[in-house]
Amino acid sequence: MYTKHIEETTLGAYLRLSWRPKITNGFFLRAESFYHFASYLDTLNQESGEDVYAPYGGTPLHKQSHGESFLSLFHNRFNGKSALYLLDEPESPLSPARQLGLLKMIHDLSTKSHSQFIIATHSPILLGYPGATILNFDGEKIEEIRYEMTEHYQLTKYFLENRTSMLDHLLKED
User: Fold this and answer.
1) Which residue spans within 25-128 are E strands per DSSP?
2) pTM of the model
């Protein structure tokens, strides 16, 4: 079993999962620990003599770009079958175009196999998923907010509409 040895997180103290009869599969992805996961696969491949890369597209994850390795994981491990996926900032290595590709995968898995996704993200693209419940953790209490009210949407929109003036202000000499 793969375990991460770099730093401990407190998530486990607050998270309790139980599988419902319909949920038969699941996956937890934390962007910060992906490198260690890919290294673990390399070690496992050397020690076992088996092709451990087959479920990840047949290529070692370290031999792909960061974004390609994430998408390889998504394409090859996210197979639906009523699964629960917990993703922590999956957008971190992905370009905007690749984020749209991930959004399509999420949609296909959600609608065709009734999979569920819980995603911690800063991406206005992923936050824009139609019908998503968006929970804001920035205040004293957790509350549901509309997409257009998220800080990530508002900042991105403001930057795109006011790029020159925003950059002039941000980059001016003191």
Assistant:
1) 25-30, 83-88, 116-120
2) 0.75
